[in-house]
User: What shape does this take?
Amino acid sequence: MPELPDVTLYVTRLRERLLGTRLEAFQVDNPFVVRSVSPRPAELVGLEVINIERLGKRIVIGLEGDRFIVVHLMIAGRFQWQSPLPPAKRATGKVPQLALRFTSGQLGLVESSTKKRAAIHVVGDPEGLTIHRRNGLDLFSATPDEFQERLQQENRTLKRALTSPALFDGIGNAYSDEILFEARLSPVRTTRSLSDEEMDQLYEAAKATLHGWSERLEVMFPGFPRPSDITAFRPEFAVHGRFGKPCPDCGAPVSGSCTPKTRPTTVPAAKTRAASSRTAAFPGFSATTGPRPWKR
Assistant: This one.
């Protein structure tokens, strides 16, 4: 699922192309993708785009008259930009969902999966955006104390806490691994087990990782990103998606442990920050057989 750096990239590139333009057509290729009933999509045609913002992992296209298009890409949803405006046709891709035709070009929504999880909501007033807010903490405006208070609301694993949209804004499976690697903390440490120093490490690592990757993606993709450019598996990542490959710091194989939907990744060699290594030993990993299911 696209996370904060990916969604931020989309917002930046959409602002460059859509602000001040008008919606000429709202073409739905898969009726299931539109999850709202009122206002009707046809009511948005002719309205000017006045704002585009990120709402957690969602993207909100604001139109005049307090009308909004809320896009949740979910796991496999991606945007596709075509300019100049092509002849009226369906969005291209494995599973085309819809095409928004603006005076500057066509924004298509496609999915590389047949599970059809991406969702569009048409919202008729600013108050209607409330139901799409998950109230996760914005790390870039939060103080260290606010971060600690939110993190320790419940005693859960760091991995689970960081990826909860009700706790933190825009962090998912991929960037939580990168954050924990940067902080030298195991993903299965519990939130209330951290020392004050470790809490500060995690706070700074989270901000640095998200900010660094947001800037990095803007440099990597100066134009509008192709669907394949938005991915949770980047060769430049330190640990996420790099099971069995050498740690960029110490050279030890990156290990992980299987869960039903995700595989947290870390380095098995357990050393502290002072010892210049990354994380504590990862429970559930066998040096001889590799990853195995978590013990219940």
